Amino acid sequence: MTDRIDLTNPERRMLRAMLSSPSSVHTLEEIMNACDWNDQAVATGAGHGLSDKGYVTIQESVRRRIHAGQEGHNAISNGLLEARLWSWISSQDEPTMAKLQAKFERHEAGPGVGLLKKLGVKLEGGTFTCEDTSSLKSELQAREMFLASLPADEEDLSERLLKHFKGRKELVEFVEHRTRTWVLTDDGKAVSEEGLDERKQISEITPELLQSGEWKEAEFRSFDVTLESTTPRTGRSHPMQELIERIRRIFLEMGFSELVDDYVQTAGWNMDALFIPQDHPAREMQDTFYLDDPKSLELDPELIQKWKDIHEHGGDTGSIGWSGSFSEDVSKLGLLRTHTTVNTIQHLARNPNEPCRVFSVDRVFRKEAIDSTHLPEFHQIEGIIMEPGANLQMLVTTLKTFYTKMGYPEVRVRPAYFPYTEPSLEVEVKWKGKWLELGGAGIFRPEVTEPLGITSPVCAWGMGLERLAMLVLGLDDIRQLYISDLEWLRNQPLI
Ligand code: PHE
């Protein structure tokens, strides 16, 4: 008899085991024992293989078992409600409703009395009576015995009592047991046991195998590449991190260098340097996180003086400033940066005469109430271009190029206002037919650049990263980005 090359080793073992009793119905336990397996999946897999090849037929049967439910278990340990009530009633000389209500809690007394009434108990003038106590008692006993016999097969139980208990809450529940059995087909019976020896198969190629030359004689295990497999779960970056990396790559590719700086800053750099008036509403406690420690930070007195001049009367810029009086103490207040413009402006102050293209993707803080579009901590994509001749067209082209590389080629700008830029722009991209505002941009005003000794024009922008992330990932709730929903995280495409 030729070897059955079409069979895997587990299939050979299972077929052999079945051939020792060719006409019987083989159960899972039997097969597992005979084959010396302890993993059900091996038996199921081999059974499927044999069935595909026409050697066995699989029979599946579903058996419904009745188990005690939550209340059923209570009844088994404490007695069935109506039985407990009846035993109390029959122990009383004068079993009145009032006394019963004092003895049993309302959630038991009400339904319990209802059940007893259906069994012939009557309430006459506030007192319980029963004409036929013996059939009442035998019914109560039958019910308790029914519960005590659980779990049981549906066929083995009284149909009437099962129907009764099914109508009551959580007394019984149904559990389905699925069993599988295997029977040899005629083709299966015709297989000769001689061809069923298990073969030594190689499933892994080792250096030893290659060096010794043994592989020439070896038999290799074949893989069925059409079978369904589980998706391997490996670690991966958070989608936000992936997006940040992608933005970085785009700006680096466009010739920008990255700026990373602290988020603890002074109000001076965060606002005064940017010509944001000291009474601007965004500086209030309800919009900005001011720090208790450090409450205040030292600043160069010369610098403060320059800002003071600019704010109070425009300094030497020809501007008239904001008028009013400028407080040095307010300048020194410590805060969590509310925008990353605080960092680009300091970069310019350190390098006022060196043309540059700089960007950052970093975290900022604002006292926002959390909702589907706001978070108190979020990220900005910030950037500047400083060089002789830098102009608005350059700024718009740069932003368009960036968003096109991100996959949003339709970009438009609209006039806007920021205290530190003139002209100022709002940047919008088209998404699903709608224009969405993603950030602000403009050219720094002389009130910002002159005190710092910057002589070339500076194009600047600051845009929301989470907003963009919502577009890229198709979200309508910003919170989804940070709630660590593993299922969602695993299913995110690699962007
Ligand atoms: N800093 C602004 C904001 O936080 C954005 C901006 C940056 C606007 C640079 C103009 C220039 O919204």
List the helices and strands and how they pair.
Layout: H1 9-19, E1 26-27, H2 28-35, H3 40-52, E2 56-68, H4 70-78, H5 81-91, H6 97-103, H7 106-118, E3 121-124, E4 127-130, H8 133-148, E5 152-153, H9 159-166, E6 172-184, H10 186-190, E7 201-202, H11 207-212, E8 219-220, H12 239-253, E9 257-258, E10 264-266, H13 267-270, H14 301-313, H15 328-332, E11 334-336, H16 341-350, E12 356-365, E13 377-386, H17 392-406, E14 411-418, E15 421-431, E16 434-444, H18 446-449, E17 458-464, H19 465-473, H20 486-491
Parallel strand pairs: 7-8, 9-12
Antiparallel strand pairs: 1-6, 2-5, 2-6, 3-4, 10-11, 12-13, 13-17, 14-15, 15-16, 16-17
Helix pairs in contact: 1-3, 5-7, 12-19
The structure holds phenylalanine.
Rg, rounded, reads 40 Å
Counted by DSSP, the helix tally is 20
Distance between the termini: 57 Å
- β-strand percent reads 15-25%
Quick one: CATH class of the largest domain?
Alpha Beta
Please count the beta strands (DSSP E, at least 2 residues each).
17
CATH architecture of the largest domain: 2-Layer Sandwich
Biggest sheet architecture: 7 strands, mixed
Helical residues, percent? 25-40%
Give me the CATH superfamily of the largest domain.
Bira Bifunctional Protein, Domain 2
Give the rounded overall mean pLDDT. Answer: 93
Small-molecule binders here are:
phenylalanine
Order of neighbouring strands in the sheet with most strands: 9-12-13-17-16-15-14
CATH topology of the largest domain: BirA Bifunctional Protein, domain 2
Based on Cα principal axes, name the global outline. Answer: flat
Structural class of the secondary structure composition? alpha+beta
